[in-house]
Every structure is written in C-alpha cells, then in structure tokens.
Amino acid sequence: MKWVGRCGECQTWAAVDEVGVAGAASVAPGQVSSPALPIAAVDADAATTHATGVDELDRVLGGGIVPGAVLLLAGEPGVGKSTLLLEVAAQAGRRGQQVLYVSGEESASQVRMRAARTGAIEDTLYLAAEVDLAAVVAHVDAVKPDLLVVDSIQTVASRDIDGLAGGVTQVRAVTAALVRIAKERSLPTLLIGHVTKDGSIAGPRALEHIVDVVLQFEGERSSRLRLLRAVKNRFGPVDEIGCFDLSDEGIVEVSDPTGLFVSRHPEPISGTCVTVTLEGRRPLLAEVQSLVTAAGNPNPRRAVSGLESSRLAMLLAVLDRRAGLKLGPHDIYASTVGGATLRGPSADLAVAVAIASAATNVPVPGNTVVIGEVGLAGELRQVPSIWQRLCEAARLGFTRAVVPRDHRERRPQRDLSGLQVVECPDLFRALALLNVVGEGSVRLPDDLRLG
Ligand SMILES: Nc1ncnc2c1ncn2[C@@H]1O[C@H](COP(=O)(O)OP(=O)(O)O)[C@@H](O)[C@H]1O
Ligand SMILES: [Mg+2]
C-alpha cells in the first residue's frame, strides 16, 4: 500500500480515494461470451489480414488489417494523418465497402474539399462531423460500416465521463468504448491521434496498450517525404517502414524510396559520400554531405543535420588522432540529403569519409558506397545486414563498396554482379583506398601506396 497524494491522470491533489478489493478472493462464475474451444476448432480466418489497398501501409501492417482490429495512427499535426486515412477510406470505398469517416477536427465540407483535392470521393464513403461518442455510435448503427475512421481520438468525448475532450481520462474511455464496438462487430477501426514534438500530450502513449496496432507517421515539415512505422503490432512485424510522398494531390506511395536521400551529381563532388542505411528491414541509400571551412572566430562551429552530433565529435577525434586530419580550427558542417535521419554508428564511415573529402577537397570516386562503424581505435566494425545493404547497392548500379573486414554474416547466394566489395580493416586504409588524402593531411599507413 502506497500513499498517493496527487492523481496521476488529472494531477489534482488529494483527490485519490482508496478503493477496496473486498470479495476478490471468492468470485462467482458469470456469463461466458463464447465457450472455450479446442484450439484446432478455433476459426483462424477471423485473424487473417485484409489488404487496405494502400501497399505501403499493408507492408507496415504485415499484410493488412484484421477484422475488429483497432489501429492508432499517431503523428504531429500537419504530417498527413487525415490525408492518409482518407485515402485508405477511399480505397475501401472503391472496393465497394461501406466506410464511415468521423471527423471531429474539421467540418464535413472541409473533409469533402480535401477529398476532392486528393481524388477520394466515393459513393460508399460516408462523412460525419461529430465530437460526441454517443453520436458516433449512432452513426455506426446507421451506416453499418465495414471500416470506421475516427479523426481524431482527442476530439471525441463521452458525456458520461468527466474531463475535457483530449484529456487522458476521456481519450482512454473513448478509445476503450470504440475498441469494444470494434470487437463486437468485427469492425476494423482506424483512430488518429496527435502527438507533439516531445511525443507526450494526452493520447497516443496512454493508448498503446488498449489498441492492437500503433503506427507512427513521421516527416519533416520542410520535406514531402513521410515515413510510416509500426510501434506496436499485435498481428505482424514492427520493423517495416512505409514511404509516402505528401503533395498537393494527396499522399502517394513511394514503393522504391531508394535514391530519395541522395543527390545525383554528374561528376563526383568533394565532401559527399554515399552509404546504405537500414530503415526497419529496408535498405535505403543515403548521402552524407560535409563542408569544412576555416573558422572566423575562436569557437569553431560543429553543425549537424540528420546526424548525431555526439557521433560527429567522436569521428572528428578519430580523424584527428588516427588519420592525422587536424580539423580543430575549422567550422565543420555535416548533413544528410532529403531530410534523412541517420542514427547509430552504421553511417560512421560515410560521415568520416565525407568530412575527410571536404577537408582535402578530393572527391570520393563515383559509384562508390561505404558502409561501416568506426571504432575509437580507427578500426572499422561490422554493421547488421551487410549483405542486404550490398545487394541494394549492386541493384542500383554502384560498382565499388568499401566495408569492414570479418563478416560474421554468411554471404547469401545473391547476385552482387558489378559490385566490387573491398574489405578494409580501418579508417585510414579506407581513406587511402578512396584516395581521399590531401597533401600531408592524412597520414598514410606504410603498407599502402596511393593508386
Ligand atoms: N488545400 C491544400 N492544398 C495543399 N496542401 C494542403 C492543403 N490543405 C492541407 N494541405 C497540406 O496537407 C498536409 C497534411 O495535412 P493533414 O492530412 O490534414 O495532416 P494531419 O491530419 O496529420 O494534421 C499538411 O501539411 C498541409 O500543409
Ligand atoms: Mg488531420
């Protein structure tokens, strides 16, 4: 037993009462909803997925939506949640399904205007602008939909429950009620939930355990690219991502996103380097760009975009101590292309090579990718799914890949034709191999000659 002074939900002081659990030890048998069955007799069809028709969404869901499943699509305002689910609703309508789209955010005519813009006007797609839970249930009774969309869960409230719409108590209660309806009627239900930059605010986080699937929709405001990833999925994997392009005409799937994060130069340019990253299980090309200039003041700048600044600091130290690249008095900028985010160490080599190339003003040879983590001793370390990354590089016509030595993963029987894979033990050998060395700036190991 613990004293709780403040309510965890509404943050009011001295509002928590102790509720007895008397009688918990002796429970009388109650009504069962359906008898227990031998496992082989249970209908497995009820848990099979049905494609939504939006392939990138289906990929993330591991096939599609399960009847009666409740999915929460979380994302920041303006990322494109309404646009995406209106498209899903329209696709279902096109297949002849009855769809009910409940909008608590926008008026029905606003949604209709969006639908006109994105080509989502279908005969069996019903719109209702509603913020009261009981009214939503009445609409469900009237339309008898095969798919329900609620935009957004924060705008719907129940009169039977205290608290403001969007508060944790309301959001939880409304979601729980919609989950019950979804299960009773085998009605697949898609909920939209807002999150703010810090991922908090009443909603998505508090709902994760109530719903079956939680999807996160992400993207920079400055870029049209949107990534969809599963945070929780009761019916499938959580390591796939979906890629979309958000434009005036709505949201378009990008089934081959590779190349989105690289800029194609006719001639190699110094300070740029291409790597292959993994988003979920999907290999994606990514380009790192760097600029190194003499600092105009005693405090040189270190600026990153799409990269981790702690990783940059570490790589600069390694370039300094292990490759003799003295960059102390320089301003250093490093960024990704197209709003990509490279987290973790697997982009280390690309970042280090881009910086060295910027510093020496020697471009990395064209059609080359580099993949690897850089250790503090300057050694190159293996990264996960190296062969998958190399296959993608080969598929896209790259002719040379510089990778760490000592693969723990067995080489698959896949075609890497045209791609020369060069295994390199450490960073300075990699720089030398790529010829990214300037006059006296990168100290070459004795056993290597410039080619
Ligand atoms: N009339 C319009 N023409 C072009 N783009 C629009 C229009 N209205 C909204 N958008 C853009 O569509 C994007 C997605 O909007 P929306 O789907 O409503 O996002 P969310 O539901 O996640 O808040 C927004 O970034 C917005 O800038
Ligand atoms: Mg919206």
Describe the fold and architecture.
By secondary structure, the protein is α/β, with parallel strands linked by helices. It is 24% helix and 23% strand. Helix 7 packs across helix 8 (348-360). The chain starts with 54 loop residues before the first helix and ends in an 18-residue tail after the last helix.
Main beta sheet strand tally, sense and closure:
9 strands, mixed
Low-confidence stretches: 447-451
CATH superfamily of the largest domain: P-loop containing nucleotide triphosphate hydrolases
The helix-and-strand class reads alpha/beta
The overall pLDDT average reads: 85
- Beta strand count: 18
How is the CATH topology of the largest domain named?
Rossmann fold
> Whole-number radius of gyration?
27 Å
Bound ligands, named by name, code or SMILES: adenosine-5'-diphosphate, magnesium ion
Broad shape: elongated
Order of helices and strands: HEHEHEHEHEHEEEEEEEHEHEEEHEEH
**How many discrete domains?**
2
CATH class division of the largest domain: Alpha Beta
Descriptive tags:
single chain, 451 residues, alpha/beta, Rossmann fold, Ribosomal Protein S5, domain 2, 2 domains, 9-stranded mixed β-sheet, 4-stranded mixed β-sheet, 10 helices, 23% strand, elongated, binds adenosine-5'-diphosphate, binds magnesium ion
